[in-house]
Specification:
147 residues; mainly alpha; 0% strand; elongated
Length: 147
């Protein structure tokens, strides 16, 4: 009788463990999907912000270029055109970020770093461990108790 009861308990425990494993896997998959969707939304907002900024900066650049060119021609001072150079670099960068291929190039470079230069990504003093966190928590807890 005890053997049958033990076998039944063992089967029940095994099925509960399998169910817990399936549930934890589903939960992890959902978390990964959620994090990816949040990342995509943040990137979309960044690109949208860049495109909106480009509209205003493009208008500013155009007005500035016309004004400086007019001033340089009237006063016969070509030095007035110098601010157009750095402003054009900013405009080109913003355009590349909003409408160009900058993000694809950055992604490619990031993949290259992950593949070939992963040592650059290591944290100082290595990865954070549970023991290290507990040690810091205890030290902080003692600090607050002593005050």
């Amino acid at each position: 009788m005890g053997f049958i009861f033990s076998k039944s308990m063992s089967d029940t425990l095994k099925s509960q463990q399998e169910l817990a494993l399936v549930n934890s896997r589903l939960q992890l998959e959902r978390q990964i999907l959620m994090q990816n969707q949040m990342r995509e939304r943040q990137m979309a907002m960044q690109i949208a912000w860049t495109r909106e900024f480009l509209k205003y900066f493009g208008l500013f650049f155009g007005l500035t270029a016309v004004g400086l060119t007019t001033g340089a021609m009237k006063k016969k001072k070509p030095g007035l055109l110098l601010p157009i150079v750095p402003l054009s670099f900013i405009l080109a960068y913003q355009y590349d970020m909003g409408y160009g291929t900058l993000l694809q190039r950055m992604k490619g470079e990031a993949e290259k770093i992950l593949d070939t230069d992963s040592a650059l990504l290591e944290l100082p003093k290595g990865a954070i461990t549970f023991e290290g966190l507990e040690k810091a928590r205890r030290a902080q807890s003692k600090f607050f108790v002593e005050k």
